[in-house]
Write a structure and sequence with these properties.
alpha+beta, 172 residues, elongated, 2 helices, two-stranded antiparallel sheet, STM4215-like
Length: 172
Amino acid sequence: MSSAPLVDVAEATLAAVIDHWPVVSATLPSVKPLPTRQYVVAGLPARDCEQVTVSWSRTFPTAGSPTQEQTTLVGGGKAILRVAVFEVEILRCIPRVQDGPSGQPVIPSATAIQDASLAILTDESAIMTALIAALNAGDLGGCGSMAIEGTRAVSADGGLSGGATKVRLSLF
């Protein structure tokens, strides 16, 4: 790992999801393997193919808990505790309208749409399970403190969709 705490925690978060995915798969048999494109990014990830990303959105000072944001007076030799906010996102291909052989649109079936959606919902449960397992195993780096803000749906052009779990992780 690098020497920068923010980089360390971002890389550890991605590694934790990847490393704990097989354990999660054993407990949630319907979970799909992770996409092979996997990376850390500052800001929004490219949403152009199936992938798993950890994106950094912001960092803030705290009195110690990742749930309590506060303004901190710098000086006097006191340590400043910080929290980083990341989103763990998985994008998957989903059924979409296609051009048929005669130029007529081919509409995906409701079953195909639902199956893709259920896989995305399962991904979100699996991300939370993997992050909690990683935290309990001491694999997230930082100060070993995490708060989950929630999850949200992610849509991208070109037949991709997924979900993102936003987490707050204490830094060193």
